């Protein structure tokens, strides 16, 4: 068990030793000089040594008192600094954002450096999820939602529509295909993503085609895996262009064929917050910065 002196008595002692006066210590601590004297007597009794020499109306630290003051002053300073630092951390604005994993990994994080400097003093926690979290219940400040309709009852803006393209590794096909065709299907493994609203089947239907009975497929849970598979030459993925922009520029992926889909059948990404959240200066600023990334 720790042998710790009465904290109140230590604080009174430190003030009196630093100011060399019970009266001045009392003024600083908003107590009476008698109360300061009483606390110091309590501390001296606890330690078993005199800390002050009391001379008429003046006081002087004893050798023991001087040593004790040096230690306690340092300890109280450290405690004060630790409390101040913790207070700064607590006062830093904490923002929480929810968005689909692929959008976070392949779109937002590669661009985040463009807005990071404008978020000084703001900590952002990212929640990568495909679920529509309740903003109030789950304490989410901003989210990006994927769907065909703008969310009702929430502050929201269209970020961008799905711009879907068929991509593969540069040398995946030995021959060049200009468009979706039977020969393309016969020579391709189609990469599917189960959580996307636009899939290869919709593309084939749009062109009046059907998958081959023996069509080779790879099916993944999310677009991150589908993109990685395409880069590794495992097949042709039907992916949002924004998720593979860097890979196209770097030449790790190419557009396998030109595919056009009816815009009315394509979902969108919406930036979403609550009207209450948008009254917060930091949330509103982050919201606008995210919109700028899409311009």
Automatic annotation (TrEMBL):
<dbReference type="GO" id="GO:0043565">
    <property type="term" value="F:sequence-specific DNA binding"/>
</dbReference>
<dbReference type="Pfam" id="PF03466">
    <property type="entry name" value="LysR_substrate"/>
</dbReference>
<dbReference type="GO" id="GO:0003700">
    <property type="term" value="F:DNA-binding transcription factor activity"/>
</dbReference>
<dbReference type="InterPro" id="IPR036390">
    <property type="entry name" value="WH_DNA-bd_sf"/>
</dbReference>
<feature type="domain" description="HTH lysR-type">
    <location>
        <begin position="5"/>
        <end position="62"/>
    </location>
</feature>
<dbReference type="InterPro" id="IPR005119">
    <property type="entry name" value="LysR_subst-bd"/>
</dbReference>
<keyword id="KW-0238">DNA-binding</keyword>
<dbReference type="Pfam" id="PF00126">
    <property type="entry name" value="HTH_1"/>
</dbReference>
<dbReference type="InterPro" id="IPR000847">
    <property type="entry name" value="LysR_HTH_N"/>
</dbReference>
<dbReference type="InterPro" id="IPR058163">
    <property type="entry name" value="LysR-type_TF_proteobact-type"/>
</dbReference>
<keyword id="KW-0804">Transcription</keyword>
<dbReference type="InterPro" id="IPR036388">
    <property type="entry name" value="WH-like_DNA-bd_sf"/>
</dbReference>
<dbReference type="GO" id="GO:0006351">
    <property type="term" value="P:DNA-templated transcription"/>
</dbReference>
<keyword id="KW-0805">Transcription regulation</keyword>
<comment type="similarity">
    <text>Belongs to the LysR transcriptional regulatory family.</text>
</comment>
<protein>
    <submittedName>
        <fullName>LysR family transcriptional regulator</fullName>
    </submittedName>
</protein>
